[in-house]
Write a structure and sequence with these properties.
The protein has 15 helices and four strands. The protein has helices at residues 5-19, 40-52, 60-67, 70-82, 88-100, 109-121, 125-135, 138-150, 192-206, 216-237, 247-261, 267-278, 284-300, 302-307, 312-321, and strands at residues 34-38, 159-165, 172-174, 178-182. A four-stranded mixed beta sheet has the order 1-2-4-3, sandwiched between helices. The radius of gyration is 21 Å and the shape is elongated.
């Protein structure tokens, strides 16, 4: 269920940019939380797959009706941000090509991979029906939500829908208020609860952060810091991981933040550098974030840290006061001349 490096890379900044809670200097009142399961996208996909696998021409209106539903609007919103070729028309053409058994690589590898999985799925309806039964277990969602909620402050907002649908490119992913599970690719469910708890916890932490900064360079750098704290919190409380970062890890994070703040990195350079920092979920960014959370939890207790997750800069400041290793004091001065651009974060 791990994302590919490019998807991880974009998701850190993308989901933070979608989170957008109101700017504040203290936590707000508790929000009602609800995590619900929606398998309508999977059921609709199975009906369409049955039609695509038949000898009769598919009703194109059925394809467009499917793509107009909320689950597939979530799919489109996610993929189109990562690949401009993934549009409603592009998906409709891809699905029409499934029945005609034509290759579909002209529009890019993302739609090409989706096409291959949908073609495979037309002959796998019994398997997919059985798989849907496993993915439809509400008890898994309830346990995952309880695990995530136990590691969040009471005012975190978990208004999330878990969609089971047919994707064909990414097995599982999350946005600001949705989690998507791909019926076509998730063959094992034994680790699903932990993965869901991890994603729900990330979304809950995102809900605490200040409103995204309007200044693009400062905002991107603050998003990286927030992502570092979020990844640290999730890996520490949900995964039970305690990293051992080195001073070189902090230096890499610092160099990247400097490049983002000063706009000296091209988009491709920024992607490459952030990919190195993320390194499949256990890179320098996660190691430093995990160490910050672990050191603060040891010094002040879990509840204190959770109560301050809304304030990533404040947590980083508190960590530097501990004089813990590795030393991260060099990160804060980077923002000294940028504070006025994003007062909600300071």
């Amino acid at each position: 269920m791990a994302r590919r490096p490019a998807q991880v890379l974009l998701a850190v900044l993308l989901v933070l940019s979608l989170a957008g809670g109101a700017a504040r200097s203290a936590p707000v009142a508790p929000s009602a939380s609800a995590v619900r399961l929606d398998v309508s996208g999977a059921r609709d996909a199975l009906a369409l797959l049955q039609a695509l696998g038949s000898s009769r021409p598919v009703d194109e209106q059925q394809i467009h009706r499917l793509l107009a539903t909320r689950p597939y609007q979530v799919l489109l919103e996610y993929h189109s941000r990562l690949d401009s070729t993934v549009t409603a028309n592009g998906l409709a053409e891809m699905l029409s090509a499934v029945q005609r058994e034509r290759l579909f690589a002209a529009r890019g590898p993302r739609l090409g991979r989706m096409h291959a999985y949908w073609r495979w799925a037309t002959g796998q309806l019994p398997l997919l029906q059985a798989r849907l039964e496993e993915l439809s277990d509400p008890a898994v969602i309830e346990r995952a939500a309880a695990r995530a909620g136990s590691a969040l402050p009471p005012y975190a907002c978990l208004q999330v829908t878990v969609y089971v649908l047919a994707d064909g490119y990414t097995p599982a992913y999350s946005t600001s208020d949705a989690i998507v599970l791909d019926l076509l690719q998730i063959a094992r469910t034994d680790r699903l609860e932990t993965w869901l708890a991890r994603e729900l916890h990330r979304i809950g932490v995102y809900s605490l952060f200040p409103r995204p900064c309007p200044d693009p360079d400062t905002g991107a750098a603050l998003d990286v810091v927030a992502g570092m704290i979020q990844e640290g919190a999730t890996s520490y409380w949900i995964d039970g991981w305690q990293a051992r970062p080195r001073s070189e890890d902090v230096a890499q994070v610092q160099a990247f933040l400097e490049g983002v703040l000063e706009a000296t990195l091209t988009p491709s350079q920024a992607e490459q550098e952030l990919a190195r920092l993320l390194a499949e979920g256990r890179g320098p960014l996660q190691r430093v974030g995990n160490r910050v959370i672990a050191a603060l939890a040891s010094a002040y207790g879990d509840e204190w840290v959770r109560a301050h997750l809304w304030d990533p800069i404040g947590l980083l400041r508190s960590y530097t006061r501990l004089h813990a290793q590795p030393d991260a004091a060099g990160l804060l001065p980077l923002f000294r001349t940028h504070r006025d651009k994003c007062p909600g974060w300071f």
